[in-house]
Amino acid sequence: MKITIKRDFRSLTAQVYIYWENNGNIEVLLPDMKTVQTLDKHVAQEPTFSIPNGDEFIVAMQKALEDYGYKGNGESKNEGKLESTKYHLEDLRQLLKLK
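^ thats the sequence. predicted structure below, dont judge the formating
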């Protein structure tokens, strides 16, 4: 099973798609949360559900998962990049004798 979340800037929602592969086909869970449909690549797929204020929901869901006992890798996608930038800026300050 896979879950994809996309931001819809027009409606300010997070659109959630729940899907999986079955015998080489992609099957998508439809909004009624009961019906499964094989993905047609020529037809726009509606999300399984949409969430107003999606960013707030995602943060709350992350906390709920942690409270439930699920621990992710503990590092965001950008965390390592930000650390590298921090050290790079420190090096620049030393070179320019700003510190």
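DSSP finds two helices and five strands in the chain.
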